[in-house]
Fold:
Amino acid sequence: MPQGRRTLSAKRVRRPWGIRRTGELAIIPVFVDPQRKRKIRLVVALGVAVLLAVALVYTSFSASTEAKEPSQLLTAAPGTSYEMTGKVVDGSIRHQGSGIVFRVVDRDGQGRSMPVTYTGTVPDPFRGGREIVLTGSVKSGTFVGEPETLITKCPSKFTTKSDA
Amino acid sequence: MPSLGSALLALAFLTALFAAAVALAGRNGNRRRIDLSRRTVYVFCGLITACVVIIEVAFASNDFSFNIVQQHSSLETPPFYKLAAMWSSQEGSLLLWAWVLSLVSSAALFATRNKLREIVPWATAVMMGVAAFFTGLMLFAPDVDPFATLNPVPSDGIGLNPLLQHPSMMIHPPMLYSGYVSLTVPFAFAIGALITRRLDAEWVRSTRRFALIAWAFLGFGLLLGARWSYTELGWGGYWAWDPVENAALMPWLVVTAFLHSIMVQEKRGMLKVWNAALIVGSFSLALLGTFLVRSGVLQSIHAFGDNTVGPYILGLIAVVLIGSTALIVSRLDDMRSEKRIDSLVSRESVFLVNNLLLVALTAVIFWGTFFPLISELFTGNKASLAAPWFDRYTTPLAILLVLFTGIGPLLAWRRVTWASAKRVFRVPAIVAAVVAVALVLFSDAPGKPWAFALFVFSAFALTGLAQEFWRGAAARRSLTGEAMPAALVAVVSRNRRRYGGYIVHIGIAVILIGIAASSSFQTNRDVTLRPGESTVVDGRTITYMKPTAAVDSEKFTYGAVLRVEEDGKLIATLRPSRRYFRPTGQESGTIGSFFSGEATSRARK
Structure:
């Protein structure tokens, strides 16, 4: 409607931005025709979605910590943060200062064990023979866990049978 | 008894198949067949209820000839937990799924017995198909038969994992399961509406209540879980972005989006494809949650069971996703919007923004939860994402969400005039500004920009909501001359749907304020104290008063009494404790045997 549009654009200057002749609020100015408006909305929405997707992919690969088992960590680069998964060696848990020291082997129980130090909250199910997940890094052959990152996997049953 | 249970379960399976078949046979409107299928669903419900009763009676009477009782209960398990022990097992939770499904299906079919003639047969078939799937799993999948027996009968059971011996065990899992399972109803009716091309708002109106029930159960279950996790030491506080927590949060978020966007479909006939996609998405996410709870796919503190049914559930998810997508695509022509969005400043447009925010939140959480699998696919290494990564995305999204929680209810449908905007936004904006100034002057909140923004936006939202209550009551008072409190009660009880929603908005704002405050302003310190010693943490003096110890037949409890003082005044007495459970079936008598068992810690006020 060319006539209508001319009237609108003539009066546009006297109103604050985004306010229509009828006093309605609008984000996309009123002189843009509805067909184009829909296109603008679609492009903006898709743009935001693509941006979010790219950000997710990018940050997740850089922020994630790799999960490794003790046998892989023995040769790992010192200083890099890893998430260690493995099984606590029976009878290896000792208190040292305000923390604990223990040894961890691969989940299948094979291979060489690795010494671990940890300070912080120790979960209740933590004990020898259980699977754990711990974030930390390797310092001179010892895995140094970050505080409050120790997770002990819950045994489905608490008999000695399921610990095996 | 076990053989009776097995027989009833097998009968229930056949009943579900029969109900689905009769419903399909009545799809052209044969009243007698539809009635028969509905009544068969009631029978299915009765049969599954009988199975649950048999199992619970076996738990209550220590019948260790049942494998499920022997594995998850013992003579010493407190009676209260014997009843809850059913769902600590994999087979028991499948039975719980089937039972809740039989209850909600019966309720839904009863509620729609004189409505939606064309959709109901298809919805019955879908619900009973899902019911037959879960009942069939218990009958045919390995190791999940709830009526498996032991011979010879053991004299005692293994007992319920002490970590699960918490009052929440009684109610948290059934709540979450009820939430997951109730989603089957709106999903089934959506599928029925798609197949029959009855895609107006009728199916939405009839099943909205069930979506709301599912939403409420899920939300309640999540809050209970958060509370439980908060008191349990080493579970990462009330929220740890644990895969299983995320698995329950995702369907809740998507149903929240659904409950908003169906209002747009009811009022304006828009967003039909979107609504169908949301309900399919939330049901699939609910199945995914059921799968994750009992699988070892992702590292989780919830990895309680061995997974033998995972592949079957994944198969069901695949069928649901592929089938529904194909159905939606084939019905695109029938789902054209009846109207278009007039203005970006309108209630429907804010609903759309809120939907996009909720779906974006879900997408972020989904990506983070499944990242270990994604990264293994691309790099060969299982790498996982920790809480800071989740916080980076969820914090800004939550802040925007709370802002729109306040804006949405204030805007009119279709379009908003400058004059009405000034009228409704003036007071909330002024209050938000005052709160912002007060925070800058009297608190250290400005140092935490995210928390600061959340507090200010929450002030805006809460004021806007309070204003809505006030305006509604004031309008009624001027009409009827009632006193203000009476007018408020009358206006709320006459518009329960609207004001109920506002109450939920207030709840969400309060929860988010709590999350922002507790996560931004907490102090963690490790200190070693002897009895009588004290330490100062963030201005509060914590004194270790005395150690405590107690023994009963089941456990050995030792703990501490901590006094927390601020400015010389007692503000709390904390009683953290650790409980050591004696392993059952072993020689007892020495204190030492307690320590070879299981331990749990609690923080209590």
Summary: Chain A has two domains: 2-62, 66-163.
